[in-house]
Amino acid sequence: MRICTIALLLYGLTTHLNAQEMISLRTVPFSVPSSVQVYVESVSDKRLSKSLGVQKKVNGELSELFLKGGASQAITEFYSQTLRKHAGSEPIYLEVHALTVQASKRRMNRGIVNVARVHIELSFYKRQAERKIELYSI
Fold first, then answer.
1. How far, in Å, are 66, 118, 129 from residue 10 at the CA level?
2. CA atoms within 13 Å, Cβ hemisphere of 6
3. Mean pLDDT to the nearest integer, 8-15
4. Which pLDDT score, from 0 to 100, does residue 10 have?
């Protein structure tokens, strides 16, 4: 599930066309095993800087990138498409420790293309008697 989560976040990051400084997560449902009976109750952004990084505009100016709506809202909406709350499902809580995006070039079939590289550190928790119990980190 760890690699699947990273791959889905990489796939979901797209540039928002009418605001170059904003990045949006594409909220597309993904498949999970039927044994997964959880939903995301909340996402807490623990990063000191909420910036995703810096991009160079066509005119040469640098501009900071931010996740549209903030990381907490965007990640909650992303997971809510698949991990829906229903009777019998358990809440999980996420903490974002790092999230950055960098532009890089890659050789593909049609030559060299620009791609986005994402670095993310997330912790998944459940709560039991007011204590946080870490399920896993990526």
1. 15, 6, 34
2. 13
3. 43
4. 43
* 46's tokens: 């623990």
Which tokens in the block code for residue 94?
A: 């996420």
Are 124 and 136 in contact, with CB atoms under 8 Å apart? yes
pTM: 0.72
Closest to 88 measured CA to CA, from 128, 44, 34: 34
- Using CA atoms, how far apart are residues 58 and 56, in angstroms rounded to an integer? 7
Phi-psi region of 20 (alpha: psi -120 to 50; beta: other; left: phi over 0): alpha
> How high is the pLDDT of residue 9?
47
- Which of 7-21, 94-108, 117-131 shows the lowest per-residue confidence on average (mean pLDDT)? 7-21
Closest CA to 70 of 30, 102, 22: 22
